[in-house]
Amino acid sequence: MPSITHFEIYKPAEPCTLTGNKLRETMEKVIEETLSSDGKELNLKGYCVGPNGMTIITRDERVVKVRRLNLGGNRIGNDGLKMLAESDLFSKVNWIELGGNDIGPDGIRHLIRSKVFKKVKSLNLYRNYIKDEGAKIMASENELDKLEDLDLAQNEIGDEGILALASSKKFPELVSIALDNNFASTEGKEEAKVGKNFKKLQSLNL
Question: What domains sit in the chain, N to C, each tagged with a CATH number?
Answer without folding.
Answer: 15-205 (3.80.10.10)
